[in-house]
Design brief:
Length: 637
């Protein structure tokens, strides 16, 4: 009996240990399952933003402008069923571009229901959705799957439009419809983002660069405080961070409605860091501070104007949140002392990412430095190869023989963009394989700087020598076509025409990544640099134009004097040539011709001209070390 009892006790202990192990295993598996589900929802959210950003670019390709942040028809104020009161969101205008053609056809045509007749483009976006049913049909692409509040708020939207970094009347009408000259001049100072109410904005207006300027971000449908009637908000946005009683808050928060494009419902500003509260001022909802937010941790997904989708951490440098915002002079603001129109953003890197044309001195590295590398990124390796500016993960820091450019603001830039004192901006260290970021068009080019030719490199070929080692060729790779044709220039000046198949697989991959990336970067920079040239000519800054766009290594001192005289005399012709080139690029109706003799180890020459209009005067330019210059042949300008 004693032996039997011992055996039973042992078996009971084994069963207990087995049950504990099973419980621990199930707990671990459930945690992993939850993480994977969260990861999948985050990727779906990113894909939604990617789809919306591409839809916006397709809209621009069709209509030569971005959709208005809020627009539509003028009526609908006193009689909501008669029109939408210039309040329709960009999501409505974009419907046919993100696979919602049926909804678009219902909205863009007259609609009858229950004895009511609605005009094309529908009634006011806050009109009863049970009576005007298209407003009840929110597209699924406008909802983040992690934001469960969309289940109870059937019209709410998870994504918001970039309204810039200004506050005073940032969400108001431009004044064109009402022919209000005072409002027109006021809102010109405060509509600094890519979207605004009743304002047309084009890609060519994004002088800061599409890869540095935001289109969209996330905003939680509910949960974050939105204070109301805050006095002095435009002079001190940090007032939105205070503690407020229930009667000082909007009970329904943002009160998001997908078809309502007004600031509180569908906009955000790059003022307070992501995840911060929001507030409307005592001047009304058009003067507000609306913050981006999400359910994905400490940060938000954002879409840039070139359709890249990234995750921005809430620790991003957002400058001094107590600084006055940019706006018109005190006589137009009722005495509020704001920063003068045209000022650079006082809200750090975050603020600079929200403005489209303020020329803040930030680099792509500074934008990359605020990306959280631990967040899921749906960008594929193939896309990363096509565009070196896409970095799915943070590169591991390795020693570099050359000092890497700083990825955070220099102390000397503090007057223009003051970093937050209590937030550390992370830096990204460059690896030897990384190249320096291209110079921004708003960064003045030093005419005395001579582009330095990099040393030639030994390239391994696919063929073998007699001793079995890879054959090598020394020189510079100066081009790589989409078909895999490679042009290599030797130190003796000889040109070799090869293919990617002639190289080892490792060197072939490096050639594709480096040279296609350089070409794409050059083409992406071209419209902004041409637009900057037009601005210099329009302002009659001829010396600055010649200094910037005629490289000293390509012209003699005598030629530059002759060029200066010709530029001042032919100002109108040059502006026309530049604008024709911009128009062709904006329309996608252009070709860039590069010949073998134009390629060098430092850059390439190209002719930019319309693909369909043979009569258009071609624009001859040369791309050298991150900047475009006007080509000069035989002393002609």
């Amino acid at each position: 009996m004693r032996r039997t009892a011992c055996i039973n006790t042992t078996r009971g202990t084994d069963w207990l240990l087995l049950a504990i192990a099973a419980f621990v295993l199930l707990s671990v598996l459930s945690v992993k399952t939850l993480r994977r589900r969260h990861h999948a929802r985050a990727i779906q959210c990113q894909n939604n933003l990617k789809q919306l950003a591409l839809a916006t670019l397709n809209y621009h390709a069709s209509y030569k402008q971005f959709p208005m942040g809020a627009g539509g028809t003028g009526a609908g104020g006193e009689k909501p069923s008669r029109g939408n009161h210039l309040s329709l969101s960009a999501w409505v205008a974009l419907l046919p571009f993100y696979d919602e053609q049926k909804a678009w056809e219902q909205i863009s045509n007259p609609f009858d229901k229950g004895g009511l007749s609605f005009p094309p483009m529908g009634p006011h976006p806050r009109f009863d959705p049970q009576r005007y049913t298209p407003w009840a049909k929110r597209p699924t692409a406008l909802v983040c799957p992690d934001d469960l509040d969309h289940q109870t708020r059937s019209q709410a939207c998870s994504y918001v439009l970039n309204y810039g970094d200004a506050i005073y009347l940032a969400g108001d009408l431009c004044g064109y419809f009402e022919s209000d000259f005072r409002k027109i001049t006021t809102t010109l100072a405060t509509h600094r983002g890519v979207f605004a109410r009743e304002r047309k904005i084009r890609i060519r207006d994004i002088i800061d660069g599409t890869s540095n300027t935001l289109l969209f971000a996330e905003a939680r449908i509910a949960g974050l405080t939105v204070a109301k009637d805050i006095a002095g908000l435009a002079e001190n946005p940090s007032l939105a961070l205070g503690d407020f009683s229930d009667d000082q808050r909007w009970s329904n928060g943002r009160d998001s409605v997908w078809c309502d494009g007004r600031l509180r419902s569908a906009g955000f500003q790059t003022i307070l860091s992501p995840g911060s509260p929001s507030a409307t001022s005592s001047l009304g909802e058009h003067t507000s501070v609306m913050s981006a937010s999400s359910h994905h941790g400490d940060g938000v997904h954002v879409a840039f104007s070139d359709a890249q989708v990234r995750f921005v951490a809430s620790t991003i440098d957002h400058g001094d949140p107590s600084s006055p915002s940019v706006g018109p002079p005190p006589q137009q603001t009722g005495g509020a002392k704001l920063l003068p129109p045209g000022s650079q953003s006082p809200y750090g890197v975050w603020g600079a990412m929200g403005t489209r044309s303020m020329r803040e001195k930030i680099s792509r590295d500074q934008v990359e430095a605020v990306i959280d590398p631990n967040q899921p990124n749906p960008i594929t390796p193939t896309e990363a190869t096509r565009n070196p500016l896409i970095t799915p993960t943070k590169p591991k820091p390795t020693p570099s023989p050359d000092p890497a450019p700083p990825a955070i603001l220099k102390p000397g830039q503090a007057k223009e963009m003051t970093p937050s004192n209590n937030v550390a901006t992370p830096a990204i260290e460059a690896t030897p394989s990384q190249t320096a970021p291209p110079k921004a068009i708003d960064s003045p080019t030093n005419p005395s700087t001579t582009p330095q030719t990099p040393p030639p490199r030994d390239w391994n070929l696919a063929t073998k020598t007699k001793d079995g080692s890879p054959a090598k060729v020394t020189g510079w790779i100066v081009s790589c076509s989409d078909e895999g044709d490679v042009v290599l220039k030797t130190p003796k000046g000889q040109t070799m025409n090869l293919t990617l198949a002639d190289f080892s697989s490792q060197d072939a991959y490096r050639i594709v990544a480096d040279k296609r990336g350089d070409w794409k970067r050059a083409v992406d920079e071209l419209p902004d640099q041409i637009q900057a040239a037009v601005s210099l000519l329009e302002d009659r800054k001829f010396n600055a134009f010649v200094q910037r766009y005629y490289h000293p290594n390509l012209t003699t001192a005598e030629q530059r004097e002759q060029i200066l005289a010709r530029v001042s005399a032919r100002r109108g012709d040059l502006i026309q040539i530049f604008e024709d080139a911009i128009r062709s690029i904006d329309n996608g109706d252009y070709r860039i011709e590069v010949t073998d003799q134009d390629r060098t180890a430092q850059g390439f020459s190209a002719e930019i001209k319309s693909a369909t209009q043979d009569s258009q005067t071609p624009l001859s330019m040369m791309y050298l070390k991150g900047a475009w210059y006007i080509s000069v042949a035989d002393g002609e300008s």
